[in-house]
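Methods, example record. To illustrate the input and output format used throughout this study, we show the complete record for RNA polymerase II subunit A C-terminal domain phosphatase SSU72. The sequence lines were provided to the predictor; the line carrying structure tokens was produced by it.
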Amino acid sequence: MSTLPLRVAVVCSSNQNRSMEAHNILNKRGFIVRSFGTGTHVKLPGPAPDKPNVYDFKTTYDQMYNDLVRKDKDLYTQNGILHMLDRNKRIKPRPERFQNCRDIFDLILTCEERVYDQVVEDLTSREQETCQPVHVINVDIQDNLEEATLGAFLICELCQCIQHTDDIDNDIDELLQEFEEKSGRAFLHTVCFY
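The corresponding predicted structure is encoded as:
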């Protein structure tokens, strides 16, 4: 069993809902965790499906919150976006892009296959420096508040099990198979190197 806490990254598209809910729960459980998005912009639901609110990754959660209050406080309160942004700004100031981070992680969890592909592509395009392995695992989570919460608990349980393995590199495949059977979800997994 590892005595050092896992260094975990959780990644979704906009670093708003799924990755931040998992960030919140993992942080409370004592993991060293950071969260990211892979998109070119941060997108939040707007007044219609074809009219999202689009922000730059440099925009703080507080600025997004104030912008949405100004646009339509009732709508964004009712759909849970203001509550989500309020949680986010208590965790960190702004969303972050995975592609701009050079920190080293033991485990990177993505929340949809497209994001998994972007993370793996980014990691494999970097020049290898230390040859330290990082396990990249995709856990498909629908992008809504309820599924983000359920997915975050599943991610947390997975991280706790990985934390308690004697040898992550040898035990991960069997562990993921158990989680697939238990959760009814398929997990993608690969190893990249720093």
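Annotations derived from this record:
Residues 42-91 form one domain.
The radius of gyration is 17 Å.
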